[in-house]
Amino acid sequence: MERRAYYRNRLLPWLLIAPQLILIFVFFYWPASQALYWAFTLEQAWGGGNVWVGFDNFRQVFGDARYWNTVMRSGLYALAATGISMTLALVLALFVDRSLRGTKIFQDVYIWPYAIAAPAAGVAFRFIFSPEAGLVGTLNGMWPGIWNPATNGAHALLMVIVCHAWLGIGYNFIFFLAALQMIPRSMFEAGAMDGAGPARRMIDLQLPLIAPTTFFLLIMNIISSFTDSFGLIDVMTEGGPVGSTEVMVYKIYFDGFRGLDYSGAAAQSIVLMLLVMALTFVQFKWIERRIHYA
Amino acid sequence: MAAITLKSVKKNYGKTPVIHGVNVEIEAGEFIVILGPSGCGKSTLLRMIAGLEEVTAGEIHIGDRLVNQVEPRDRGCAMVFQNYALYPHMTVAQNIGYSLKVAGVPRAQRDERVRAVAKSVGLEDYLDRRPGQLSGGQRQRVAMARAMVREPKVFLFDEPFSNLDAKLRVAMRAEVRRLHRDLGVTSVFVTHDQTEAMTLADRLIIMNAGRVEQIGKPSEVYNRPASRFVADFIGSPAMNLIEGMFDEQGHFVYGRGGRLAAEPLNGQRRPGRKLVLGVRPEAVRRTNEQKPGAIPALVEYIEELGAARLIHADASGTRIVAVETENVDIPSGAPVHLEFNDDALHVFSAEDGRRIDAHA
Amino acid sequence: MIERSPLFNAISYAMMVIGFLIVVTPFWVVLVAASQSLSEIARVPMSLWPSAHLWENIEAAWNRADLGPKLLNSLIVALGVTFGKITIAALSAFSIVFFNYRARMVCFWMIFVTLMLPLEVRIVPTYSIAANALSPFQTLLDTLGLTGLISALTGVEVSLNWNLLNSYTGLILPLVATATGTFLYRQFFMTVPDELVEASKMDGSGPMRFFFDVLIPLSRTNMLALATIMFVSSWNQYLWPLLVTTDRENYGTVVMQLKALIPAQNGTPDWNVTMAGALIIMLPPLVIVALAQRWFVRGLISRDK
Q1: C-alpha–C-alpha distance, residues A213 and A180, integer Å
Q2: Under an 8 A CB cutoff, do C198 and B103 touch?
């Protein structure tokens, strides 16, 4: 819909938008371009500025088996956390959408995880999963040594993934419920007239009809697992034990700020940036198509 | 009170022209209605007077001032919008008084004027409500009060009643008429409803496809439509328009060979000449026997209106509607004869649709 | 619709209760642990019932992590970011929606594309910007040769420097640009009818008057929704404060203190104090979300449409 009523003024619109443009220039576009610059250059040991090295930094990053491990781990992390979180949220949303008596309380509580800072949840889950403490650690009392995320990489990764999935429940739930509630009531009644029971209607009507939201959430969750995982891992495992919970974003931080390898970190940043861009782009394409068919 | 003059006013959207050079002189204190089908450019014209739309070419004068480059607020116009355009977060009083507040009128004075205007449109009990709590008619009044409070030189109305139900519309019409009589402010009112137009206007401007078809008093427009478009557009039921051509004998031949020897056509009889004959249903009489000048037709159906009924008849392939005041029962398919009142015949050119005056 | 399916209803309730437990258990554990004494919490298995030591644990956490000043810092940062984001978003959206200039769609896309550049993927270079926020301009001047020109003309050596490290400005400013907020405001502004703009023009108000008298009051609900989301997300920021504050003492936020609360590898496992600290830190955004649920849910969802 095209607007017809505009204000006419040469300077004012620019003054209004200037603060935002300056901020995104300084804090988004400039750093992004700097990352590009660093990714293709190398700081000389004796100072005197950077020298152009072409794709050397990338070659080095991609040639590193440890980097590929990080990538694979990030992929696993993304799929597992997204899968668990979305499945749980979807199931809860489907049942809440039935609007049975008393559902409102459940609905309110399901949103809570959204409010929690990832590191705060990280601390809580670290305690819950602590091998010494009296929760999951109780298992060690029955079978000594069965659970120890401090030394067992698989345990540590599982712990982080579970926490990440829990954190995402609130956000995913809100979107799923909203999508479900937008399905017209009459479609339900038609389904009921056709003889489909409530469970049947969930599978045959609701799930297909919220497919666009599912897709949107899928992408958002994957991106979030690439980026938001930092706080969680830093508090829970610091990437350990021996790098077994190191995901891409954590490695960038570690190489950049601990290892002071700016060029390597920049090259990795560019890779992650491209990944996020690709995912966002796929999302836009999908939304575009959805509008065409709707 | 101010006169409004439009000189060759044109408007393009991008490259597409939507107003093709309009010339109108509106006298001070006059109530002008711009009437036309949707998309004819009537609202655009109004909005150009208001200053909400840029003028592509030509001049608009309000009073003796050229206003093409003048901001809306400085033109001395007030406008009533189609969807009222009330500020939803302000009370009725705040809505009405907003323009005074912007103009920096002191609070006490503002309140007094708002109160007075609200009283004149019967809103004094609703001043603290918000638009969402009002009925359609009340919102309409707020919109009018908002326009009145500025004591403008010109009132502009953009289809203000189109969201009201039929009964309310009649009441609001009377109200607008009364306000105009009391205030005497030059008013320009845009509508697509011809009844509204006829009852409100001192003069009508009929527009079609970005052009002015006719300017005149309602009675003039009704009785002497300047074009085939106006003839067709004004009047309900619509005027019968019979397309035909003169044959070698000088008879007017229409439809599948029907013939008509109507006197007002006398000046036009040239073989091969095409014309459009117009006659209002009120001027068509049903007779039972063959008379000279009457044409035979077959009744298709009768449309019952209560006080009268419309006979829809087929005369040699041309549909003709006649008003029948007698309460008679005529079966479909019955043959009748239809007689035209010669004084009420209108003749239009078949090429450009302009009116042709018989004795001119 | 009349429909009786008691079995399915029972299943529904069962599932919802399971979901409830999954969501609430971590909260419950934090609360319970925060209320227990060191000996109670060291018990295996630990009791899942609250004990009486909540206040002393909170006090211990408060002192250990210096929560008083840190909560104040968090509040300043969260409010600053929220206020900044809302202001910036409203102004940009106003510019984009209500003014007809050629570059407005370009501007909008420039802002929108920043969604693809989350902080986490540009941390290394953004950090260097924080050390001197004016360095982009300096570099531009240098590259364009203007620095030399200016110094030749005026004798002044242009050297722009604005260090953001260890300052509230540094904590707040880089988080203020907002694609989401601008997008939400744009969506809302586009639903404002043209006639309202025209009516206010006829009433004699200019663009800024229209902005303050009409648009801002009208967008109040949206603003609250946005404020909730922004407050929660800025309160919960972790990575950026971590980078930009080396002076934790004075500029640290509470979320950064979480790590300091975790028992050391071979120290006393006083998780009860840790959990008391976590409880305080997670409470403000949780309360806000619980209170503002109605608005914020709407705000969050309208993003996608």
Answers
A1: 9
A2: no
Residues 2-31 of A with CB under 8 A from C: 3-9, 12-14, 16-17, 19-21, 23-31
Same domain, yes or no: A29 and A95: no
Q: How far apart are alpha carbons A6 and A15 in whole angstroms?
A: 16
Domain count, chain A: 2
Query: How distant, in Å, are the alpha carbons of A258, B6, B27 from that of B23?
Result: 79, 5, 13
Structure tokens at C19: 């979901």
Strand partners, A183: none
CA distance B276 to chain C (A): 42
- Domain extent for A84: 65-293
User: In which domain, by residue range, is C153 found?
Assistant: 70-261
For residue A268, the Cα-to-chain-centroid distance in whole angstroms is: 18
Strand partners, B274: B245
Q: Is residue C93 part of a domain?
A: yes
Check whether domain B240-349 has CATH 2.40.50.140, yes or no: yes
With tokens 């290394």, the residue in question is C124
**Whether A3 and C30 lie within 8 Å, measured CB to CB:** no
Task: Specify if C13 maps to a domain.
Answer: no
- Asked if pLDDT for residue B208 goes beyond 50, the answer is yes
pLDDT on residue B263: 64
Q: Count of domains in chain C?
A: 1
Nearest CA in chain A to C280: A120
In a domain, A190, yes or no: yes
Structure tokens at C161: 């420097």
List the single residue in C200, C204, C218 with the smallest CB-CB distance to B88.
C218
At C305 the pLDDT is 33
Q: What is the pTM of this model?
A: 0.84
* Cα angle B215-B221-B224, degrees, rounded to a multiple of 5: 115
**Could you state, in order of their start, the residue ranges of all structural domains in chain B?**
4-226, 240-349
The average pLDDT across B60-64 equals: 92
Residue with more model confidence, C278 or C164? C278
Segment B79-125, tens digit of pLDDT: 999 888 899 989 999 999 998 988 889 999 999 999 999 998 889 89
Helical segments of chain A, H only: 12-24, 30-39, 56-62, 65-96, 103-110, 118-128, 138-142, 153-181, 185-193, 198-201, 207-209, 211-227, 229-236, 248-253, 262-293
Identify whether residues A93 and A183 lie together within a single domain.
Answer: yes
Cβ contacts of B274 within 8 Å, gap of 6 or more: B243, B244, B245, B350, B351
Contact A31 C243 (CB under 8 A): no
Beta strands at B203-208 and B31-35: parallel, antiparallel or unpaired: parallel
Q: Are B251 and B216 in contact (CB under 8 A)?
A: no
Pair A76, A50 in one domain: no
Tell whether C296 is covered by a domain: no
If asked whether residues A231 and A288 sit together in one domain, one would say: yes
> Any idea what DSSP says for residue C197?
H
**Rounded CA gap, A121 and C275, in Å?**
10
Name the superfamily (CATH) of residues B4-226: P-loop containing nucleotide triphosphate hydrolases (3.40.50.300)
Domain annotation covers residue C64: no
Do A87 and A139 fall within a single domain? yes
Mutation target among A74, A106, A116 for the C interface, most CBs of C within 10 A: A116
Q: Are residues A185 and A289 in the same domain?
A: yes
The rounded distance, in Å, linking the Cα atoms of A111 and A96 is 12
Q: Dihedral of CA B145/B150/B155/B157: which sign?
A: negative
Please report which residue ranges of C236-270 form alpha helices under DSSP H.
Answer: 239-244, 248-251, 254-261
Q: Which chain C positions have a beta carbon within 8 Å of A197's beta carbon? A: 5, 8
- Same domain, residue pair A197 and A262: yes
CATH number at residue C133: 1.10.3720.10
Q: Are A276 and C118 in contact (CB under 8 A)?
A: yes
